[in-house]
Amino acid sequence: MRLVLLVALLLAARVVRADTPTDGMGRISVGGTLRLTPNDYFNGKAAEAGRELVADGTTSPFGAGGVASFGYGAFEYFEVAIDLYAAWEAFVLQGLRPFSSTNYGILLGFRVTRYDVLFKGFAPYVGAQTGLSLATVTSPDAPGSERALQPWSVNGGFAWRFTDRLGIFLDVRYLLSRLYVADIAGRNVGGVFVSAGLAIFFPSATERRDTNEVPGFSRPPLQ
Q: CA-CA distances (angstroms) from residue 116 to 5, 18, 29, 157?
């Protein structure tokens, strides 16, 4: 949550350059994800049932995934966001073959952001979303669990726009989502998502009018 607070301070600071308007600006971000999913409660309940977590090289507190994000600047400082995500992890309980845990979802919400903060092209943001997801926890030796859930999410990060159209992003998200695993307990299928990747920007009409042309996307000057 320190990242979210830091971004909020940057957005409120007087050092904001704000040369590029947020409203009318669009962006698509695609990247990979590393997920940390604490499950001390689930692991404790599994141990009470005689199924302790096995650290055999196949169990890790981390999982992998991916994210695709679509944003549009509806107002100054305010961006509507649609985020798609997928995450996977594996774990082993004593006496059972490995479990596979997956979570796919779509989130709808907003981001508070501003372009050209501190220096040209830098755009920090904070946001909140909710939506719909499908979570599964399965093992060949245990009853599977599958359910549609409503996750809740807060996130913060930044995009760095180094050309008119291209940039990179870093996003840290906390996702709240739980799934009950039969005969054991509720398991955290959300956690902390750290994502990074490529961002593609779509300049606003105002910026296109000011520059007349975007490198790589030539167009005649607007009348």
A: 19, 5, 18, 14
Between the alpha carbon of residue 191 and those of residues 56, 63, 188, the distances in Å are 22, 10, 7
Mean pLDDT score, 129-137: 96
**This prediction's pTM:** 0.80
Report the C-alpha gap between 68 and 62 in whole angstroms: 20
For residue 179, CA distances in Å to 31, 57, 89, 185 come to 26, 24, 14, 8
pLDDT in tens, 198-216: 999 998 765 555 555 544 4
- Name all domains of the chain by residue range, CATH numbers in brackets: 2-211 (2.40.160.20)
CA distance 200 to 26: 8
CA distance 77 to 82: 17
Q: What is the DSSP letter of 214?
A: B
